[in-house]
Amino acid sequence: MKIRPENKDDHDAISKTTIVAYEDYPFRQETEHQIIDDLRKADALTVSLVAVVEGQVVGHIAVSPVTISDGTSDWFGLGPISVLPEFQGLGIGGKLIKAGLSRVMNGIGGRGCVLVGPPNFYCMFGFANYPQLIHEDCPQELFLALPFKGRVPCGIVKFHPAFMQLAEVEKDVVVDVIIDYAMAGVKMDLENPTVQRLIEKGILMEMPGHKVIMRPAVLEEYDPILASLTQFRMTEMGRVHKNPFMAAIRS
């Protein structure tokens, strides 16, 4: 097994490896392969390493810059990390993580790394939870950091905008809410995991009666086009409610 930097011929294999590897991962976003592509296009893929076995890409790790609200610089986000299922359990993921951390620490002079993942696994690489370091899009106990030098920052961490994407199933739910938009909210199955994720992200807000309403300002951060459609729909429906004749037709 060899670990090396990616080249342009690896891009398709990296996407396929990432999709397959994350199929059964409990913390998946369902957009991991798109995140890597967008980081690459934005020239924000600071480190991109592949694990190769007999000429086949079987694993990949990405590293990209993060911002911290206290102004601390030179910190990076580790991930997405992927290994094909048939090659898992062989230590390939661990070797990719160590290689990625080494590149950040020794290759580009990084001061630390953060990631979202299970503490019981990543603690073996030195990652730990620091209460003063916060990522608002996940439970605090799953947000881990590894300082290389200096103090641990104190602030809110944001990953590159490439991570702010909606999965296709999330977009489908958003579109359903737009189509069925009502001033008092749209009735949804609040037990649906996709609906729950959108509520956790703040895109949907739960209302009484098993209803939700859209929050266009939050949706704008994830998908400006859907946010614009939402705003248009809300404006049009507002006009209907204000116009007695249109309201009568609608009823």
TrEMBL record:
Domain N-acetyltransferase: 1-149
Transmembrane parts of this sequence: none
UniProt-listed InterPro entries: Acyl_CoA_acyltransferase, GNAT_dom
CDD domains, per the entry: NAT_SF
GO molecular function: acyltransferase activity, transferring groups other than amino-acyl groups
Pfam families: Acetyltransf_1 (PF00583)
Name used for this protein in its record: GCN5-related N-acetyltransferase
